[in-house]
Sequence to fold (373 residues):
Amino acid sequence: MDTTTPITIIADSNIASLDAFFNASTLGQATGQPVNIIAVAGRDINAAILAEWQPEILLIRSVTPVDAALLADNKSVQFVGSATIGTDHVDQEYLMARQITFANAAGCSKHSVAQYVLTAILTLRPQYWQQSVTLGIIGLGNIGSTLADYAHDLGWQILGYDPLLPASNINNASLEQVLSQSDVVSLHVPLTSHKNTNTQHASNGSDYPTRHLIDAEALAMMPAHTMLINSARGAVINASDLEADIERTNRQVVLDVFEHEPQIAEPLLSRLAIATPHIAGYTVEGKLRGTQIIYDALCEQLSVAPTQSMQTLLPLNMFLWSELQTYPDRLIKFYDIKQDDAALREKVVDGQVNGADFDQLRRDYHLRREWQS
Fold:
């Protein structure tokens, strides 16, 4: 990049500490260039905005699709950073063909999401603190494996399934075994479709597609007492099949993500044991870690040394996972997931939660802290 001209950044305004990481005194000082940050709501980032500002850098979260429709008429973008774990919203093959560098924040919220899952389980079934429980985990990447570590600490049994990883002490079961033999099933897979299909992002094709992985057939394998939790991507579950299953079995289901997000139909919402507005990863640490990862990746792209660290931005938090294990009654006081559930249900108008209200809940969310921080 030309060191005599400003660096222009278009960024999702919901990226944590955006200015602290990318302003003139951090990124600008490292590069010796002025920095111009244009913060925009993620769903409003479009081709017209890119044409107007001609940014070199595009920073997003999960609600901005990045593909040919966004970038076909743009020649300025050289780096795309997504401060999220998931990448189903980014056509990586297209970026590669355009020689645009892409970075995502793999693992940034693994503790946040794992702790959300445990909170949901123990809010609905507090007796599981003292019981031998079989936790089924579908997807054993950063989040799934972290959740397995927590479950192991609690003395729970783990049934795990991930066809993309070798067999291990936690990748130890078939999909059918996980569904049919678990007390709780938690989903931690990316959203993928079949290879060589006309999907929105063809680069997300897979030999093991996860779109509608949980459908009527999969749900029929699960005993009625088995709790189902999805904090991955909404379309991993077929929403209409799930609604019918809950009607039939009265199953306890926890959803943080929804197939037709950001709209949520009230008939499904009313049947859920817990519903939250895609905030499972929304902790101070998870958000800052996501920003840190894409900031470090950009510094590497620019061949400059990072000058900012999330550790300098974090307030002290002395609440420890070990203390929760010793005093489990403090869990609800530490994070009242039912409060997030109530806030979402209060947004129902004319039979649904609309997209603007859903996004507002996420934008204005009061970030909680990770237990071990």
